[in-house]
Design goal:
Elements: H1 5-22, H2 39-52, E1 59-66, E2 72-80, E3 83-86, E4 100-103, H3 106-109, E5 112-118, H4 128-145
Length: 146
């Protein structure tokens, strides 16, 4: 499937805006300081939204990087082939963009990353409590989108 970049940017920005409007009241605790510390949960929610909007399916990638001998930073983002999508990278000081859509992201490639699975919170269906929290959070974000 060929992705429509302008549609993808519009949807990702709309989703990010909605999270910013309602993040303090979301069921998942990691949204308290959005975008800081919320990249993992955001990946599953945004991936589901993009799929529901008919924009396409994305994969969840997670990675980490050592900053000195004892300091490690981790991050998660969405990928479709070599297309990187990230709405939480601005939690890092060197990133100012609220939404990143780029091919072959050198910034993301500095993380020791690995493919996790499809970016969709349906991967948690086996864990009823976790799935319900994601579902509730997703529905709150959708209501914020309008």
């Amino acid at each position: 499937m060929i992705l429509n970049r302008s549609k993808l940017l519009k949807a990702a920005t709309k989703f990010r805006d909605a999270i910013e409007k309602c993040h303090k009241g979301l069921k998942l605790l990691r949204f308290e300081n959005f975008p800081r510390g919320s990249c993992g949960d955001t990946v599953y929610l945004l991936g589901r939204y993009l799929k529901d909007q008919g924009i396409g399916s994305f994969d969840c990638y997670c990675g980490s990087i050592m900053l000195g001998q004892y300091d490690e930073q981790s991050h998660a983002w969405l990928q479709n082939g070599n297309l990187y999508l990230d709405i939480t990278a601005d939690q890092f000081d060197e990133i100012n963009d609220r939404v990143i859509i780029v091919e072959n992201s050198f910034w993301h490639q500095k993380f020791q990353s690995k493919y996790e699975h499809e970016a969709d919170f349906n991967v948690f269906k086996h864990d009823e409590l976790t799935f319900k929290r994601f579902e509730s959070t997703y529905n709150t974000i959708l209501r914020s989108i309008g």
